[in-house]
Amino acid sequence: MRGFIAGFAVLVVAGSLTAQADKPYDSKEGRYSVAFPGKPTTDSKKAGELTLNTAAVEAKGVGYIVIHSDLPADTVKASKAEDILENGEKGLVMNFKAKVTKSQPTTFGKEKYPARNVTAEVKVDATTLKLRLLIVLANNRVYQVLAVGSEDVVGGPMTEKFFESFEIRK
Question: Which domains are delineated in the chain?
Fold first, then answer.
């Protein structure tokens, strides 16, 4: 599962610090906060021209991950927000042979940043995992908030709390 999560973090965007478990994790660099169900580990990796900044926790068989990366300003200016979000979803499908079960455009936060909610199924060996993903475009920064694991846990209250706690700061 951990290898899958690490691979997911790198590939979706492209096509160790800790926090206390009972307090929201605050990423000063990423300008966001989120309540992980445990102490996250962080990592930064290059993927082409992008730097992928990841904070992740595995708890009760579910991977909880937030990835943020900055797109080049000219890429954002030359593209529609919907296209950038769609490309994030296509990267999920292409790189992981995921089957999208739901994809819904939305907005995020009081700033009404363009966003997309995606649910998908991913096969890992003989197991089918559920993936829940929120992609947000805030100016030139892309945030990917995701949970991957068994359907009952990914659809459960711990995961809901994780997604509801995600906030973007200026």
Answer: 2-168 (3.40.1000.10)
pLDDT in tens, 21-67: 457 999 999 999 999 999 999 999 998 889 999 999 999 889 999 99
> CA 143 to CA 133: how far, in whole Å?
10
Among residues 89, 18, 98, the alpha carbon closest in space to that of 56 is found at 18
> Mind spelling out the 3-state secondary structure of 45-101?
EEECCEEEEEEEEEECCEEEEEEEEECCHHHHHHCCHHHHHHHHHHHHHHHHCCEEE
Give the pTM: 0.86
